[in-house]
């Protein structure tokens, strides 16, 4: 029986070598591998007969089976390589060119400014909150003491989504929502997107970021307002930064003020960026109008407060000396990667 099994193994080796050499494709070679050496293949069928052999005969047949298996495996592997499809020709490919560098992700420069501003006000006791971008006319205008015949409420200034619903023109509606939900003391900052029918030019965009601030409590005065804004300016722009407050008008603050800081480009000496004045505007602000308190259920005889709104994109332009606000919105990686 030993001689018969060895003969079967050698016949299997010869037949396997012949059929493998004649195989013309990788799929055919793989089919032969399964047929010859697979779990249910012909070599396995021969080895099943070892169980009926004596202990003295098995080693000789087993050694021959291992030799045949190794020989066929080598032939199959060699034929697999020979029948593999060639790699696509690298015609015109210059392998000496440097590879394309990997782009690094990072926060947008305006987002970085928003986060830094909110962090400064967090240190001053303010909480960061948010509100809806699709806002009702009531919260966007009426509760903020802005009559609906005001030019800001006209369709040529505001995006109307439906009757009584607009894309918010400022983050100020969140003031009213917060005051209706919480009793004083209140100190919040509200970053978010705003929408206006502005022309798209070097200093305007129809969608822009704004940061609203509100502080309400008993006994808050204009002195507290000035001190808070001046401290913010020093922390953000530097300890030598000066601030000034110019009288202005906003429907929801009284008195109102425009806040300027010393020009960050020329240091206050006067340049084209600040139009020779040495000052650059950063926000509109003022003491909350008593009518706004009445609209949200606060007692204007008991509580006072201040509010402000600033454009972080404009502030980023000053910090990084960027002449055109449109650069922030064009998604040019060459520009944005400078801030990573």
Descriptors:
single chain; 340 residues; alpha+beta; BirA Bifunctional Protein, domain 2; 2 domains; seven-stranded mixed β-sheet; three-stranded antiparallel β-sheet; 11 helices; 10 strands
Structure description:
The longest helix is centred in the N-terminal third of the chain and has 26 residues, at 58-83. The chain has 11 helices and 10 strands. Helices cover 38% and strands 20% of the residues. It is an alpha+beta fold. It folds into 2 domains: 2-83, no CATH class; 109-339, BirA Bifunctional Protein, domain 2 (2-Layer Sandwich), CATH 3.30.930.
Q: What is the CATH homologous superfamily assignment of the largest domain?
A: Bira Bifunctional Protein, Domain 2
Major β-sheet strand ordering = 1-5-6-10-9-8-7
**Radius of gyration (Å):** 39 Å
Poorly predicted runs of 5 or more residues: none
> What class do helices, strands and sheet pairing give?
alpha+beta
Strand content: 15-25%
Query: Average pLDDT across residues?
Result: 87
How many individual domains? 2
Overall 3D shape? elongated
User: Largest sheet, described in full?
Assistant: 7 strands, mixed
What is the CATH C-level name of the largest domain?
Alpha Beta
